[in-house]
Amino acid sequence: MLKEFKEFISKGNVVDLAVGVIIGGAFGKIVSSLVNDILMPIIGVIIGGVDFSNLSIKVGGAKIAYGMFIQNIIDFLIIAFCVFIFVKIVNKLSNLAKKEEHEKEEKITETELSVLKEIREELRKSPKKTSSKSKNKKDK
Known about the structure:
Strand content: under 5%
CATH topology of the domain at 11-91: Non-ribosomal Peptide Synthetase Peptidyl Carrier Protein, Chain A
Radius of gyration: 35 Å
Number of helices: 4
CATH class of the domain at 11-91: Mainly Alpha
Order of helices and strands: HHEEHH
Distance between the termini: 82 Å
Structural class: mainly alpha
CATH architecture of the domain at 11-91: Orthogonal Bundle
Shape: elongated
Largest sheet: 2 strands, antiparallel
Strand order of the largest sheet: 1-2
């Protein structure tokens, strides 16, 4: 069982997943700061300084904080949009790198093909030599 655990933990997927979770947590803090410290104050100014987080309603002895729900929905939409833009940029950069690599491969292939064509043409131009065995057969 210990051996199986070692194999499981040493697989690349587990390590990649752990790194992804750690980076995701750090990225989440950055995006949350962007939303809370930069975008929400701007949105607050645009909509007239309304702070959704303080909106609530009392029903009997319970306080229903529907404003926090609205605030969390807005936060989610902004975070989702930021992640969308980030993924779009990363994909675009990745596609550019793949395109450059593909173009290099095509250039190499074209160069190799042209050299092979030149060799073929030179072989066609050169006079054909017959082997000594075939000469001996003709002489007899």
